[in-house]
Amino acid sequence: MKRQWWKEAVVYQIYPRSFRDSNGDGIGDIQGIIEKVDYLAELGIDVVWLSPVYESPNDDNGYDISHYQRIMKEFGTMEDWDELLDALHDRGIRLMMDLVVNHTSDEHPWFIESRSSRDNPYRDYYIWRDPAPDGSEPNNWVSFFSGSAWEWDETTGQYYLHLFTKKQPDLNWEREEVRQQVYDMMTWWLDRGVDGFRMDVINNISKTPGLPDASIKDPASRYQFAAEHFADGPRLFEYLEEMRDKVLRHYDTITVGETAFLPLSSAADMVDEESGYLNMVFQFEHMAVDAEPGTHAGKWETRPWKLPELKQIMTKWDKEMQGRGWNSLYFNNHDQPRQVSRFGDDQQYHQTSAKLLGTFLHTMKGTPYIYQGEELGMTNVEFPDISYYRDVEILNMYKEFTQERGHSHEDVMQRIWTTGRDNARTPVQWDASAHAGFTAGTPWIEVNPNYTSINAAAQMNDPASILSYYKKLIRLRRQEDVLVYGDYELYDPDHEELYVFTRTLGKEQVLVVLNFFAGTPVFHLPDGLNEAAAHLLLSNYDQTGASLHGRTMRPYEALVYKLA
Ligand code: ISL
Ligand code: CA
Fold this sequence. Notes:
Elements: H1 5-8, E1 11-14, H2 30-35, H3 37-43, E2 47-50, E3 54-55, E4 67-71, H4 78-90, E5 94-99, H5 109-114, E6 128-129, E7 150-153, E8 158-161, H6 176-192, E9 196-199, H7 236-246, E10 254-258, H8 264-271, E11 280-282, H9 307-321, E12 328-329, H10 339-342, H11 350-363, E13 367-371, H12 392-404, H13 409-419, H14 456-460, H15 466-479, H16 481-485, E14 487-491, E15 498-505, E16 508-515, E17 522-523, E18 535-539, E19 551-552, E20 558-562
Parallel strand pairs: 1-2, 1-13, 2-5, 5-9, 9-10, 10-11, 12-13
Antiparallel strand pairs: 3-4, 6-8, 7-8, 14-15, 15-16, 16-20, 17-19, 18-20
6-O-alpha-D-glucopyranosyl-D-fructose (ISL) binds next to loops.
């Protein structure tokens, strides 16, 4: 496998609205990030992935862009952005921007033109269709955010497609000028100095020609999840190849595609080091271990997750990429619940389980992504009422579930507490002062009330804190080549509590033993491994020096040993 800086990197995701507010308007901003670049440098991360900061009416917090080459007023100015880029580069940190080009805002000038008349030159920048003979939507596709994926437009008497909210019309990638505009815009940002892109729902840009109905997955609904018609479309690779050849190959970048529902074999082709287009993708299979399988709506229907299934998914992705491509590693981001609440124990074993999950992500093979606040063990939140929530997905889902699907208010609140995206979007908890030191004003979304105990200031100088542990993890990965490039091998795939694997690079070998739950299983050294020369690199407990073989593991214990 080729050595590449982006394989050795640790990426840190910033969701600017919730990171740090510098001017007291309650909204995080670019100057707020600049205030914290030293914090990021001390943490030791190599790359910042910045969620969208472009001009936007904020129907979906910046994922609805009305101008790709301007900065959102609430976040600052282009000068602020230049200052941020310099501040990061000065500290050796690269900047990855969010590229949202499956759709724009309905307030983007292209869409304003497009909807103005049927013969406007921008008309087919978007996807317009006549109604079905009975006047209803052109097909049965459901939007990710509830209801039909089509919106009726009175002016021109046609529907337009929006896989997300109706303020996020899908671009028509079949039109060559659309693609060229996107490539020009990417080039413009690369020439300004950005180091790469995280590509929002990039696998959705090619749709099945003719836009046929989706198969019925939810018989109770008029609208159906249509991934089979947009997750792995016929021209997807053609577009990405063009993007690679016209833009990316001229720069030294880090690229990651967000690719929910993209089949593994296509993902591997997409990131193939010889013939592919992107460095890595965010796969979503492991995000479904606690969800009802099959549909997007399944995310609201959770079930207990099983460790053997997680192992099976992670191992399958590793094996498929082996010798060909590269994986990303994550357990949370701005769309997912907090990892310590979802996969750990955010009460009794808060610290220990947060460290265990971090250990897994930083010792597996792939590039780890830390989501802001994860390094503090930030948790899910249970706001008492729907009025506290801001996320358009949550608000639409609340309406749909209470009004159309007959669920009770209590039932729906429970689902939001478990799965809702606002779990990840409460402000970063900097200290124990009012609003967690996020803002001097009134935050756009309430802070998690546990900020008085969980915050950066409290953890900064505490060697036993989650934050200190993340610093060690990041340094360890930098120190031990085997943790970056070593081959991964799983042991005991069916064990329900222990996740045991090795990483091997030439003569070097690391053994990772992770007790994913609160039980106390006994660990047996797998055949063929030798503990004679073993020494401990890292653990989330104070060690007592017990031998490795036959050891009784403590709740959520994580052990990283160098065997040779
Ligand atoms: O979290 C999800 C909704 O339940 C995902 O399915 C998410 O919608 C999907 O991963 C796409 O996410 C990305 O594009 C969306 C935006 O809302 C998300 O924040 C973004 O990460 C539309 O741009
Ligand atoms: Ca602000």
